[in-house]
Amino acid sequence: MSDPVRLKAAEIAEALGDGSLTSVDVTQAHLDRIADVDDRLGAFLHVDPEGALATAADVDARRAAGETLPTLAGVPVAVKDLINTVGQPTTAGSRILEGWVPPYDATVVTRLRAAGLPILGKTNLDEFAMGSSNEHSAYKPARNPWDTERIPGGSSGGSAAAVAGYEAPLALGTDTGGSIRQPGAMTGIVGVKPTYGGVSRYGVIAMASSLDQVGPMARSVLDAALLHEVLAGHDPRDSTSLDAPVPSVVDAARRGDVTGLRVGVVKELGGEGFQPGVQQRFDETVELLAQAGAEVVEVSCPSFEHGIAAYYLVMPSEVSSNLARFDAMRYGLRVTPDGPPASAEQVMAASRDAGFGDEVKRRIILGTYALSSGYYDAYYGSAQKVRTLVARDFAAAFEQVDVLVSPTTPTTAWRLGEKSDDPLAMYLEDVATIPANLAGVPGLSLPVGLASDTGLPVGVQVLAPALADDRLYNVGAALERLVDAPVLADIDAGAAR
Amino acid sequence: MSSAISREDVAHLASLARISLSEDELDRLGAELPAILDHVAAVQEAASADVPAMSHPVPIDNVFRDDVVRPGLTPDEALAGAPASEEQRFLVPQILGED
Amino acid sequence: MSTQTSTPALVPFERAIERYDPVLGLEVHVELSTATKMFCGCATAFGAEPNTQVCPVCLGLPGALPVVNAKAVESAIRIGLALNCEIAEWCRFARKNYFYPDMPKNFQTSQYDEPIAFDGYVDLDVEGETFRIEVERAHMEEDTGKSLHVGGATGRIHGADHSLLDYNRAGIPLIEIVTRTIEVPAEKAPAVARAYVQHLRDLMVALDVSDARMDQGSLRADVNLSLKPKGSATLGTRSETKNVNSFRSVERAVRFEVSRHAGVLDAGQSILQETRNFHEADGSTSPGRPKSDADDYRYFPEPDLAPVSPSREWVEELRGTLPEPPAERRKRLQSEWGFSDLDMRDTVGAGALELVVATVAAGATPAAAKKWWLGELARRANEAGVGLDELGVTPEQVAGVQALIDEGRVNDKLARQVLEGVLAGEGSPEEVVTARGLEVVSDDGALGAAVDAAIAANPDVAQKIRDGKVQAAGALIGAVMKEMRGQADAGRVRELILEKLA
Ligand SMILES: [Mg+2]
Ligand SMILES: [Zn+2]
C-alpha cells in the first residue's frame, strides 16, 4: 500500500471498506504529514489530533462491528477557519476572534461529523475571507506547495495548500467571489462553488451574505462530488437554503461523458489581460472537449465586464454590516484605550481598529460609503441592478449551451508580496470567478496542466445553471480524463512527471 | 456621480463604522479609496433605470419557522466568550447617550 | 447636550394653545406575545433570569442566521388588517445599521421602505366626538437587550461606571405602528393621543397578539410633537418623547411638550431636534439624544432573509379571524346592558370594561357588575394604589358575592364582609360565608328567642307597639340585630315582632 497521504478520498474510502487501511492509520498519516510540512505551507491555524483520532477510532470500531457507514466515513477532512467548530477555535483568520471557541457547530460541520469524517483542523485564510492571496491572514501567510515563494490563492488558501500539499485529502472552502475556485486553480486541485443556497451557510462566519457559499476542495472531481454530497441539502436554519433535491453529483462525476454536450466559451473571459500560458492551456482544453464530441460555441456575456465593479460594491456593503457585530462587547478582542475611563463606544472603536487588518478596514469603509444616505442608489443600488444584468446574461447563455467554460484566473500564482500594495490590481484577479457569485450559479475549477510560461498550475472553470451542479461534475470528470494533468511530486519539487 | 472622497469623508465613515483609524490609515485610505471608487462607479452607467435591483441571487420567498421553542445556550455557554461578565450578564464599559 | 443658554419658562397649556397648534405623531411599539422570538426559537417569557433565553442567533454570534417566526408574520398581518391597512403583496426585511451595546448584531433587523402593512386608519371616540387617526405603516422588527447601569448615583447612564447586559429581550418580535401627522383641535390633542394609545391596547388585547402592558414595556409609545403658530402652515421642529409608560403619561407628555415648546418659541429660541425622556414622577421631559445628519442608518435589504409575500388567500383567511372592532363592540355592549353614555364612559374610563364583561358572563346583572367594580372595588383599588385587575378578586368571585345577595343569604353589609374575606385570600365567597359564619339567620326558632328576649328587655317599647305605634318596632329590630351581630333577616324579625305583639 502506497503512502496514505497520496491517496485520493475515494481510494481511502475503498481501502477503509475492504479493511486494507484503518481510519486511525489514515488520520495519523495526515497528522504526521501536517507535523512534517506545515511549517513550510502555513496551511493550518489549528490542528486537532485528539479530536480527529477520536472520530477515526469511533469509525473503525463501528465498521468492525459491522455497521454500514456513509461513503466518506473515516476519511479525514480539513475545515476552513471561517466555519464554526465546537471544541476548536474559529478565528476567521482575524485577531479580533483570536482564541474564540464557538458554542455551536456550523451545519456543514454537523454533517461532516454525522458522516464520520475526522476533522484534522482549521485552515488558514485571508482575514474574514477577504483576499485572493492568503496574505491577509492575521496570523501567517499560507504558501503554494508548487512554489512556497508564491501565494496559494485565497481566500481559501489554507484549504487549497493543505489538499495540494498532501496534508488532507479533502477540505472545505468558502467562495464569495472565487475563494474556492481561484486557490484551487493556483494550487492545481479541484474546487467547487455550489449553487447559492445549495449548501447551508449556518455557522459560517458571513463575509457577504448574498454571495457566500461553502464548497468542497479535493484532488479529484469524484472526491469533490463525494464531499459535495455530504455538505449539500436543505437546512431550515438558513433562510436562503434551497428546499430542493441535491443534484446527483456523484453519479455525474462517475459518468464524465460530454458527447453532444453544448459548451459555451465566454468571449469576455479570455484574451487580453490573460497570461499567455494560461490562455494556451485553456484553448487546448476546449479543443479536447470538441474532440470528445462536445459542441463548442462562443458565447457573449457583455455584462460580465461590470462584474468586478458590482462585486466590489455589493460585497463591502454587506461586509460593513456583517462585521459590525465584532465590537468587543460579547466576544472577541477587547482593547481599552489609555487615559480616562473609556466609554463602550470608544472601546468598540479601539478594539475594531486593533482587531481588524487593513483589507478588512478598507472594505468596511468602502461598504459604509456605498450604503450611506445620498450614495446608496448610485452605488449599492446600481450594483444590485448589474447583478440582474449578469443573471440575464447567464440565462441567455444557458438558452444556447449546457455549460460555460473559461480560464479560472487570468494568471498563475504570483509571488508573495507582489500585489500587496495595489488592492485594485488584486481585485481584478477575480474577473472570471465573480459573475457566478453575483448570479448564484455553480462553478467548478479543475487543473488542466502547467502554464508553459511559468510552469505553474492552470485552472479551467466550468459554469452551469442554478441547481445543475451535476453538469459541472460531468464535464469536470470528462476533462480530468482527457487532460490528465500532472500532479505535484512534493512540496517545491515540481510535477511528478 | 463623481467619486471624490476626502480624508475627512474617510474619518466620518470610520466613525460611522466605529473604527478609530490612525492618522496614517486615514491618509492611506484617503488616497486608495478614490481609485477604487473610480473603478466601481462604472456600475452607474451599466445599470439603466428600468433594470430591477437584485437583492437575492435565488428567487425564494416566505421562508418561515413554526413558533415552537427550541433549546438555546445556557448562560455559561452564552457568556463563555465574553471579555467580561458579572451577575450572569455581559459587562461592558459605560454607555454614553440617552439615559 | 443642549446648546440653549437658559431654559425658558413653561407656558401653561391653556395659554400655549391660544397661539399655537400642536402637530402630533405617535409611534407605538407592540411586543408580540409569540412563544418564540422573531428570528430564533428562544422563549420570550417575561422576567426570566438574565441570559437564559438566548442562542447564537439572538446573541449575534458569528455565523448565526435568522429565520422568520411564522406566527409573528401572522400577527403583523392581523394587526395591519385591524388597523384598516393594506397588506403588502411583497415586502422585505431590511437592516438598520447603528452601533449600540444592547443590539447584538449592531444592526436591527427591521423593515424600511417595504412595510408589511400601510395606509390604514383608526376612528376614536373622544368625549362624544369621533377622530380619525391615519396609520402610515405597521412593520415588523426585533427588540433590543436590556442594560443595567452600575455605579452611577442615579442608576441611569450618566455617571455609571459600566453596564450589564441581558439579551433575553433581544430579538423579541415587535410591531411598530406609525401614524401620519395628527392635527386635531389643540385642546383635544392630549386626550386624543391618550385615546389612540388606549385604543391600540384594546385592539392588541382583542386580537390576542400581545399583553400590551405599558407598565411591563410590552406596549411603548413615542410621542412626536411640534408646534405651529395658529394660522401658519409651517411645521415646527419636532421633539420625540420616549419612555412614556402609561396612558395618563401620554396625555401628560403632550401637555408638557406643548408648554415647553411654546416657552422656547416665545423666548425667541429654536426647538432642538432631539429625543426627550419622559419622567413619570413630575410629568416633565428632559433632553435625550440629539438627532443629526450623523444618523445614517444605511438601510439595505436583509440578505439573510427571504422576502415575504403573503398570498391573498392567507390575508383573507386572517381577516376572517379578526375580533369585533373595539368601538363597535362597545356600542353593542352598551345597548345590551342598557347603559347610558355616561355609564359606559365611566366604565371604560375606569378600565373596568373587560371586568364587567366577565362579571356579567359569570351571572351578575350588568348594573350589579358595574356597581361593584366602579364602587366598592374602585375605592379599594384606589386606596391600595393598584389597578382593578390587580386587586386579587376575580369577576367570577364578584358575581358570586352578588348571587348571595340576590338569594337573600347575605345583606349588603354582610356582602362587604364576604368580599373582604375573598380579598384576604380566604377562598371563594361561599367558603368565606361558611368560615366566617356570615349567612343571615331567617330561621324562626333562633329569631323567635331573640325577639322574645328583646320584648322582655324593653317592656315600654313593646307596650307602644301593642298600642298601635308600629313605627316603634325599629328599636326592637335594632336590639335583635345587635344580639344577632347583624346576621338576622331584618324583614323576618319585623314580622315576628308584629305577630308576637298583635
Ligand atoms: Mg423601529
Ligand atoms: Zn435566540
Biggest β-sheet: strands ordered side by side in the sheet of chain B? 2-3
Beta-strand content estimate of chain C? 15-25%
Q: How many separate domains of chain C?
A: 3
- CATH homology-level superfamily of the domain at 1-46 in chain B: Glu-tRNAGln amidotransferase C subunit, N-terminal domain
Overall, the morphology of chain C is elongated
Number of strands of chain C: 15
H and E order of chain B: HHHEHEE
Rg from Cα of chain C: 30 Å
Provide an overview of this structure.
The complex is a heterotrimer of chains A (497), B (99) and C (502). Chain A is α/β, with parallel strands linked by helices. Chain A has two domains: 347 residues, Amidase signature (AS) domain (Amidase signature (AS) enzymes), CATH 3.90.1300; 79 residues, no CATH class. Chain A has 16 helices and eleven strands. In chain A, strand 7, helix 9 and strand 8 form a beta-alpha-beta unit. The mean pLDDT of chain A is 97. Chain B is mainly alpha-helical and 99 residues long. Chain B contains four helices and three strands. A two-stranded antiparallel sheet of chain B has the order 2-3. Chain C has 502 residues and is α+β, with helices and mostly antiparallel strands. Chain C has three domains: 225 residues, no CATH class; 111 residues, no CATH class; 57 residues, Orthogonal Bundle (Arc Repressor Mutant, subunit A), CATH 1.10.10. Chain C contains 17 helices and 15 strands. Chain C has a nine-stranded mixed beta sheet with strand order 3-6-7-10-1-11-12-13-14. A three-stranded antiparallel beta sheet of chain C has the order 5-4-15, with no helix packed on it. A two-stranded antiparallel ribbon of chain C has the order 8-9. In chain C, helix 8 packs across helix 11, helix 9 runs parallel beside helix 10 and helix 11 runs antiparallel to helix 12. Bound molecules: magnesium ion and zinc ion. Magnesium ion (MG) binds next to loops of chain C. The site of zinc ion has 8 residues of chain C, from loops.
